[in-house]
Amino acid sequence: MRRPVLTALLALALAGCGSTAPPAPTAASAPTPQPCSPSTAIVGWSDALEGQHFAGRTPQPQVVGNLSALAALPDGRVLALSDRSVLFTLDAAVDRPLDAVALADPAGKALDSESLVVDRDGSLLIGDETGPQVLRVDRDGRLLGALPVPPDVTDRGRSNGTFEGLALSPDARTLVASLEEPLRDDDRGLTRLVTWTRPDPTSAAFTAGPQYALGLPAGLGVAELAPLGDGRLLALERGYDAAVGNTVHLVGLDPAGAADVAAVAALTPATAGTPVRSTLLADLGTCPALGATSPQAQRNPLLDNVEGLTVTGREPDGALDLLLVSDDNDSPREVTRTYRMRVTLG
For residues 344 and 1, which has the higher predicted lDDT (pLDDT)? Predict the structure, then answer.
């Protein structure tokens, strides 16, 4: 009877001496932004949302995860869109939910909601890969309408590979959607930016506009878009390889001068005309890890399945403050992680 007692006491003594591993850090901030590339730096990261559940106005508590899109609000709060058909409102620190509403398509079915923008009137435009469709909803999740989707996207969009990113121009006249993967019959190295335009953002509905070809690095797809205010865009390129983990690129896109390929049935290097100019700003795998850990193999433990991006502010020197989020896919091998970054553009 004495051996179990002695064993337990010894274990407690060893624990008191610090023999157990310290808990993994859940957040870190750099004293000053740490460079990932000449234009891009990381400010900090946090896993504060990981494992949280919140009901809000949904029928039952929802995991605060599967986050695929972000939109910063003027008051500092952040909208976070789950691809499980839930819209969360997060506090300004992005470490706790304040509200949650369920979303549905016109038939009442759940969405594969992947992209999000806030329109000038406060309504939300949400890209759904199930349709594919772009729906307009209010902040309570009530359906207000839908945008016309080009037939080629409806007919030739790849499953789980369509409206992954949305960006609205500052004048609210142009909406841009990124197709995560090429349409069927398009070259595997070329995807499309699909646009809608309207002459008057206060009253007129969007109509389908030009499409532009965008080159893709091998194994990567477009996960998100954000407007820069001058016609250019920020984009996230993302991919995964079981041997090395995630690859995440922050990319600058410039559609100026790109050819309209809306009438091109099959994109190839020969038929794409002038594509969107793309500039690699940073490979997030080169960022300092800042003490981050990962539950799966990653070439940099800071990395995860990053899908969401929004611009949260501008510094006095013109640098943009960014917030990014990863989609944990309801997997114990992935994490709901937020990242604060800063990018300086020429």
Answer: 344
Q: Are 115 and 163 in contact (CB under 8 A)?
A: yes
Read off the pLDDT band of 204 (50, 70, 90). confident
CA 77 to CA 92: how far, in whole Å?
A: 4
In whole angstroms, how far apart are CA 202 and each of 72, 171, 196, 205?
Answer: 21, 10, 15, 9
Find the Cα–Cα–Cα–Cα dihedral 265, 269, 271, 273, rounded to 10°: 120
**Alpha-carbon span 37 to 39, nearest angstrom:** 5
> What are the structural domain ranges in the chain?
51-283
Do residues 26 and 46 make contact, with C-beta atoms less than 8 angstroms apart? yes
What CATH number belongs to 51-283?
Answer: 2.120.10
> Where in 295-337 does DSSP place strands (E)?
306-314, 320-326
**What's 185's DSSP letter?**
T
pLDDT of residue 70: 98
Q: Is 70 exceeded by the pLDDT of residue 236?
A: yes
Task: For residue range 261-286, list pLDDT tens digits in order.
Answer: 999 999 999 999 999 999 999 999 99
Per-residue pLDDT at 17: 38
Of 80, 111, 84, 115, whose CA–CA distance to 98 is shortest?
80
Residue 306 near residue 339 (C-beta atoms within 8 A): yes
